[in-house]
């Protein structure tokens, strides 16, 4: 009786675990679906504000040309309205971009997520304050002050945006490299076992060495990028350099994967030939 209870209990526990995994899987699918829908909406808003910004910029440049030809006064109503429309469109575009970045950071759940979100929210609020200052401005001089403030806010926000995007990519690269390192160890054992049975593994060994070399290079470039992201007082140029390191790292991983596919093909052919040999021996 107790034995039956134990078996039933084990079966029940296994069933509960499977059901829990199913629920988690369903929850993950729902989260992914909701994120995709949210991102799609944010992308549409970003595209809309981008187009509005471009239109406003065109109008502003026409007005500026008229001012330079002394056909309009800097503080004329037409000049002020065009400048205000251009600045407001710029701010709306910036806020849409930051909202898009914020959504991706929230979904990635990477390191320092809360701090980055707080920083983005702070910059969005500062931009909204400047939007109010634009409405209050009554002269070209007052709008110049707003422009300087908006530029400073955007420079800070852009650094957060660049570093957040880079760190998210770096984390994904790290996950890929960890799997690659485990895979290279398994391949090394496989090739060594084949060599012991008398198989000519010279080509496989060369390919494996190249694969490991690319993975090592990708890791080094990732670490170079991470070093910049973790530094204080990084400039926009520093972050662009870090992002370039990540592009190089991804390129190394791509080359490594190309070698890997070739090795898998060769190993599969070896196994097919080995199995054929076994069949002949059995016959």
From TrEMBL:
Residues 1-14 have a biased composition (Polar residues). The lineage of its organism: Archaea, Methanobacteriati, Methanobacteriota, Stenosarchaea group, Methanomicrobia. It comes from Methanosarcina thermophila (strain ATCC 43570 / DSM 1825 / OCM 12 / VKM B-1830 / TM-1). Residues 28-38 have a biased composition (Basic and acidic residues). This is Chromosome segregation ATPase. It comes from the Archaea. Residues 1-38 are annotated as: Disordered.
